Amino acid sequence: MFFSHNIKNPLLIPFAHSLISLPFVIRSLRPLLGNIPVSIRQAGAMLGAGPIIIFFRIDLPIIIRGIINAAILIYHLSGRVQTTSS
Questions:
Q1: If you ran DSSP here, which 8-state letter would residue 56 be given?
Q2: How far is the C-alpha of 41 from the C-alpha of 53, rounded, in Å?
């Protein structure tokens, strides 16, 4: 009885897909973030950049290919989950 009302909520579908795909995104991006040299980030901080600026100007250009790769992977996984669940 409890689940019959919650399954009909359309807002649960994106939430469920994000919960399924989150481990794959973390697994794809974690090695990329770990391989960024600390000296580059320290140089940005020494030049006066804050943490947000360092992320957008240093980290993001380095990991953008990994983000695109993770997005493609999640798109395919999401489609697979949707077609096999019916």
A1: I
A2: 10
pTM score, two decimals? 0.69
- Separation CA 57–CA 70 (nearest Å): 20
CB 28 within 8 A of CB 73: yes
Neighbours of 23 (CB within 10 A): 9
Residue 21: per-residue pLDDT: 86
CA distance 50 to 34: 19
DSSP 11: T
Residue 80, Cα to own-chain centre: how many angstroms? 18
Going by pLDDT thresholds of 50, 70 and 90, the confidence category of residue 15 is: confident
- pLDDT confidence bin for 66, thresholds 50/70/90: very high
